Amino acid sequence: MVIREAGLLFRGFNLVKKSYHKTTLGKIDSDLRSGLLTALLNFAETAFESDSIEYFEGGKFVTAFINDKISAEDSVEPELLISYVIMDKEKKIDKHITKIIKPMLIKLAIEFKNQNEMKNLSEVSQFSDFKKDIDAIFHSDSQNIDQKLEGLFY
Q1: Torsion (CA) 21, 24, 30, 33 in degrees, nearest 10
Q2: What DSSP string describes the chain?
Q3: CA-CA distance, 18 to 26, in Å (whole number)?
Q4: Residue 28: predicted pLDDT
Q5: How far is CA 61 from CA 75, 83, 143, in A?
Q6: How far apart are CA 144 and CA 68, in angstroms?
Q7: Where are the domains of the chain?
Q8: Cβ pair 20, 135 in contact under 8 A
Q9: Per-residue pLDDT tens for 29-65?
Q10: What is the pLDDT of residues 96-107, one digit of tens each?
Q11: What top-level class would CATH report for the domain 3-153?
């Protein structure tokens, strides 16, 4: 399994993301993609009357999610915080997401909330240092086989 990207969405925008490998040939507006991912997740949960959509599976990639809540400075009630990863599709994806990816996504949400609860979450530039935390959680699973072998011999 290779994780290509990991990040956090709030109000349809990317708060912070860490990209490890490209998933497209062209440039895609990250705000547009974040809004689409949020809308798809909200639609799927509403349409299927479930609050636990775990992933969307495509031809080559899988996007896995977990939902959490965070309190922002400008909000009375906690709002939806979505942790996500985009990874290569593989066999037995259900088991892999449940045992490996979901605990990492939960850890990502907890770390972010611990550092940023009750802050102004609309100023996303303040979260650039959080990429180090994302890297600490996902780095070993973001390497492809060549990178892992290179690390063993050099």
Answers
A1: -120
A2: --EEEEEEEETTEEEEEEE-S-S-SS---HHHHHHHHHHHHHHHHHHTT-S---EEE-SSEEEEEEEEEE--TT-SS-EEEEEEEEEE--TTHHHHIIIIIHHHHHHHHHHHHHHHTTS-TT-GGGGGGGHHHHHHHHHHHH--HHHHHHHHH-
A3: 18
A4: 73
A5: 34, 17, 15
A6: 29
A7: 3-153
A8: no
A9: 777 888 888 888 888 778 776 656 789 898 899 999 9
A10: 999 999 999 999
A11: alpha beta
How far is it, in rounded angstroms, from Cα 130 to Cα 30?
17
> Is-contact 83 109, C-beta < 8 A?
yes
Which of 22-26, 33-37, 71-75, 82-86 bottoms out in mean pLDDT, i.e. has the lowest?
22-26
Q: Which position has the token pair 């599709």?
A: 89
Q: Which two tokens stand for residue 72?
A: 């922002």
Which residue's structure tokens are 């996902």? 138
Identify the residue whose tokens are 């896995």: 64
